[in-house]
Amino acid sequence: MRFHVVTLFPEAFEGATSYSILGRAVHRGLVSVTVTDIRKFTFDRHGTADDYQFGGGPGMVMKPEPIFRAVEDVLESLPPEEPDLIPILLMSPQGEQLNQRLIDELAVAPDIVIVCGHYAGVDERIRTGLATHEISIGDYVLTGGELAAMVVIDAVSRFIPDVVGSAENVHEDSITSGLLQHPLYTRPVEFRGMTTPEVLRSGNHAEIARWRGRQQSLERTLRLRPDLLRFAELSNSDRIYLEQLGWSGESGDPSNNPADQARERQALDR
User: Methyltransferase: is it a keyword of this entry (predicted)?
Assistant: First the structure.
């Protein structure tokens, strides 16, 4: 997998791609991250990449010419059959919310180009005439698209073969599996009055799998992210167990979550 980042601040990516799992993947050649400085594609000696808004308004807007030129330079460096297949991502709070479905889609692309916005935003023609995807990592605004681009790189890289030691670990993670992950414990058995569940120390692998594999994941998902249950693949036994916990089975809406209902009652009592 090859990531091509187009940014005003290439130095922001130096540390993010040099440590931990992603750093090892880069070192082993499983993932590459090349960074293109937008200012190298500007037209004046000052490297001017932004300008005032037409019609007035606060904040500067990133100009279309240098970004188009930078992305086109990246695409020209790729094999001739690839450019039409390459996702060009514009990181923006106005974009489609990043989720596991979108990550799965991106993970099969041979290359990904990521454009990092900055200042008040980018010229609209970048959005409509260049980007294939406009992506947001959440309903909040960052100072620039660099951190959001790093999130995409990290999330997609985990699905590249051999980047993470065990593929099973990746597919059983929270969200990826469709549910939240079961609680995790390690030594010591007891810590500050909190004890590891006895079933995990029983040696009974069937009981451990039953407790850890579904029941705890279902219970945690219902308590913390009931919205995920709308899309999870649930067996009849899963549904029965959830209904015993108070799940209505209608929509997975948080309003159906017993824990949330209890918190709402407590708030009203106060």
Answer: yes
When divided into structural domains, the chain yields a total of: 2
The two three-digit tokens of residue 247, written as one number: 């799940």
Shared-domain flag, residues 21 and 130: yes
For 247, the domain range is 190-269
Name the band, by pLDDT with cuts 50, 70 and 90, for residue 173. Answer: low
pLDDT digits (tens, 9 = 90+) for 49-63: 999 999 999 999 999
Measured between alpha carbons, how far is 223 from 256 in angstroms, rounded to an integer? 10
Helix pair 216-224, 236-244: axis angle to 10 deg:
60
Question: Any idea what DSSP says for residue 232?
Answer: S
Nearest CA-CA partner of 196 in 208, 204, 188? 188
**134 and 263 share a domain?**
no
Q: Tell me the H-state helices in 107-254.
A: 124-129, 146-157, 167-171, 205-210, 216-224, 236-244
CA distances in angstroms from 108 to 2, 27, 65, 85, listed in the order given = 11, 21, 30, 10
Q: How far apart are CA 111 and CA 129, in angstroms?
A: 19
- Rounded Cα distance, 184 and 196, in Å: 9
Distance CA 238, CA 165 (A): 30
CATH code: domain of residue 101: 3.40.1280.10
Within a domain: residue 142?
Answer: yes
Among the residue ranges 21-35, 161-175, 180-194, 197-211, the one predicted with the least confidence is 161-175
Integer Cα distance of 270 and 264 in angstroms:
10
- Which residues neighbour 90 within 8 Å (Cβ) at sequence distance 6 or greater? 115, 117, 122, 126, 127, 130, 131, 133, 134, 135, 145
- Is residue 181 in a domain? no
